Amino acid sequence: MSDASYRDAIFSTPLDRVANFSFDEQVVACFPDMIRRSVPGYGQILGMLGLIAERHLRFGAHVYDLGCSLGAVTLALAGRLPPEAFTLTGVDLSPTMVARARETLAEECPDHRIDIIEGDIRHVDYRPAGMIVLNFTLQFLPPEDRRAVIERLYDALEPGGVLVLSEKIILPDEQENAWLVERYHDFKRANGYSDMEISQKRTALENVLVPDTLEAHHDRLRTAGFTRVSTWFQYLNFASMVAFKDA
Q1: Cα–Cα distance between 10 and 26 in angstroms, integer?
Q2: Are 95 and 66 in contact (CB under 8 A)?
């Protein structure tokens, strides 16, 4: 977003108390700019989702975009696949995100069959799906709930279905992890964030965004039943994985 009113400046002034991060109206208003400047490789991940769908999604199958925010994943798929190629349900817990996503998708891809619902991905009544995308969503769930969610998604996928999971990660080696975190902060500084903004947002996200190691993600996916699991993308401490359900 080039309009200054949409620039992420949430943590640009000193705060006496940094509240826990939430996807409220203030965040929604600047979300595209926040993601662009805060998530390394976000655009590349979106670009590949349509290609993955072209290669692996059964024609006419259903897709879930879980934690859909403003609908970027859905737009990426709709940009690569014709309306008859899939149906899609987007789910998000933020009513403001849901309202904005509905408006955007109705305008940008009116011929695609897309339903955006407000809900908790832990409690959705999933229908059989050919593809499920969790783009930086699982990390916001309590760690103790994540295994059950992945198991439910495995059960919802039809044979031959694919799950794409993108997450912020940590490394098991403290020194290597610290180096990645430092370089991530350099990335944010290069994108215009001040040290104060970086520090205050980190405080806001503490205990709200709890990352796992890649090994923990792979173990969870395999335990759920996925036999083919690959990390296809990593940029600093952000990664994307793909997991296939046997046909």
Answers
A1: 8
A2: no
Q: In the 8-state DSSP scheme, what is residue 127?
A: P
Q: Confirm if 71 and 109 have CB atoms less than 8 A apart.
A: no
The parts of the chain modelled with pLDDT lower than 50 are 1-5
pLDDT in tens, 27-58: 787 888 888 989 999 999 999 999 999 999 99
CA–CA distances in Å: residue 71 to residues 35, 85, 105, 156: 13, 18, 7, 21
The span from the CA of 51 to the CA of 30, in Å, is 28
Structure token digits, residue 71? 């609908």
Residue 172 neighbours by CB distance under 10 Å = 10
Give every CB contact of residue 40 below 8 A, 6+ residues apart in sequence. Answer: 184, 187, 235, 236, 238
Tell me how far apart the alpha carbons of residues 96 and 24 are, in angstroms, rounded to a whole number. 7
pTM of the full predicted structure?
0.91
